[in-house]
């Protein structure tokens, strides 16, 4: 976290009432987050749902007992009944919504990516600092128990100096989206951005300095000509010497798969598993294990953890544990990876 972000957090939520939260964007992940806030986060209540599609806002608000459903973001930003917002609208709307919410004095949880340009990342960070609000970014993997335990082991010096790291995301297949409706560079800006943050999280204190990326359309080769990319490998070198790889695919037929690994001078930690339970069936044809088909199932506890941490930060007047600066660092790697694909060369990151 930056010092400016840490210095001036205040709270609009007195301890006497729950933190009153409005959702901005009632789509797939917004519905997940709204339900968690309404049902599972202590000290929080869902008071409003905003979505330009009125039916989406109304349906979710009704299902979760939120008193306000609106198609107008301003309705929640001007309301005295709202302390904080969850921004789960499409990626390219995030920065303007962060800036508007901060200007209105609302604490902000924003899904990744917080911004798709570094200038916008700086704009969001500055707006939050100026307003003294909590700004948390949705890098949920940090809250997954295995990844959190891996970081604790690294902090306890059990791994020694990190030398090789890896992080991967494979979305569940078969891939059914229309590639023409997926914004260009999504694999870096919205998928691998999780892995870039994970690599930084698992290599604490180190700065990414050099990025090289290779990407292709192996899932939908027919869409490659239109710029579609669904498979990528990125190497990231850090200033402590560690060499990392991040990889992603949009279509793993066996389910949603998220894993990480840190190999160091003193040992190794691994985290993540695609298994939906720890049950293994042993039968005449061998072993069978069930895999998760959705991120919201595989990482449910991580989503609960990040939203609980957000509410705790507001209630205790402390900075968010995943900051705008963290979002900026992950974005800087994503943008370098895009440039590397464009040029075919490694890209150095500015100090
Ligand atoms: N952290 C994670 O694990 C995770 C998982 C999925 C998605 N995401 C991120 O969450 C964001 C949303 O993804 P999604 O899959 O839920 O998308 P989605 O398309 O299902 O939902 C987006 C919703 O936002 C609404 N919307 C559009 N413009 C809006 C605006 N200006 N204000 C308010 N609402 C608006 C849409 O009508 C829609 O209901 C993306 O940035 C995505 O990368 C994060």
TrEMBL record:
InterPro entries assigned: Gfo/Idh/MocA-like_OxRdtase_N, GFO_IDH_MocA-like_dom, NAD(P)-bd_dom_sf
Gene3D superfamilies: Dihydrodipicolinate Reductase, domain 2 (3.30.360.10), NAD(P)-binding Rossmann-like Domain (3.40.50.720)
Short name of any one Pfam family annotated for the protein: GFO_IDH_MocA
Domain Gfo/Idh/MocA-like oxidoreductase N-terminal stretches: 19-139
Domain (GFO/IDH/MocA-like oxidoreductase) ranges: 147-269
Alphabetical keyword list: Oxidoreductase
SUPFAM superfamilies: Glyceraldehyde-3-phosphate dehydrogenase-like, C-terminal domain (SSF55347), NAD(P)-binding Rossmann-fold domains (SSF51735)
GO molecular function, one term: oxidoreductase activity
Source organism superkingdom: Bacteria
UniProt family annotation: Belongs to the Gfo/Idh/MocA family.
Protein name, UniProt field: Oxidoreductase
């Amino acid at each position: 976290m930056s010092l400016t972000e840490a210095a001036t957090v205040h709270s609009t939520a007195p301890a006497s009432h729950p933190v009153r939260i409005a959702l901005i964007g009632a789509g797939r992940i917004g519905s997940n987050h709204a339900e968690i806030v309404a049902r599972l986060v202590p000290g929080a209540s869902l008071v409003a749902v905003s979505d330009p599609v009125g039916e989406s806002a109304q349906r979710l608000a009704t299902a979760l007992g939120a008193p306000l459903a609106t198609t107008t973001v301003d309705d929640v930003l001007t309301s005295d009944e709202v302390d904080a917002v969850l921004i789960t609208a499409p990626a390219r709307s995030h920065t303007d919504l962060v800036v508007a919410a901060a200007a209105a004095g609302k604490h902000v949880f924003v899904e990744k990516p917080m911004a798709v340009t570094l200038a916008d990342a700086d704009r969001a960070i500055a707006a939050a600092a100026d307003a003294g609000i909590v700004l948390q970014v949705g890098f949920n993997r940090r809250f997954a128990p295995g990844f959190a335990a891996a970081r604790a082991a690294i902090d306890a010096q059990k791994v020694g100096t990190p030398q090789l790291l890896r992080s991967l995301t494979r979305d569940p297949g078969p891939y059914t989206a229309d590639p023409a409706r997926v914004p260009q560079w999504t694999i870096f800006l919205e998928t691998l951005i999780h892995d870039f943050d994970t690599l930084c999280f698992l290599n604490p204190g180190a700065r990414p300095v050099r990025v090289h990326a290779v990407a292709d359309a192996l899932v939908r080769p027919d869409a490659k000509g239109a710029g579609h990319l669904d498979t990528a490998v990125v190497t990231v070198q850090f200033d402590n010497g560690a060499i990392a790889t991040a990889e992603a695919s949009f279509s793993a037929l066996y389910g949603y798969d998220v894993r990480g690994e840190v190999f160091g001078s003193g040992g190794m930690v691994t985290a993540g598993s695609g298994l939906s339970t720890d049950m293994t069936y042993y039968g005449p044809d061998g072993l069978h294990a069930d895999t998760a088909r959705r991120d919201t199932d595989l990482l449910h506890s991580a989503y609960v953890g990040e939203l609980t941490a957000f509410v705790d930060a507001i209630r205790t007047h402390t900075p968010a544990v995943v900051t705008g600066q963290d979002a900026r660092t992950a974005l800087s790697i994503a943008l370098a990876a895009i440039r590397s694909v464009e040029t075919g060369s490694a890209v150095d990151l500015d100090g």
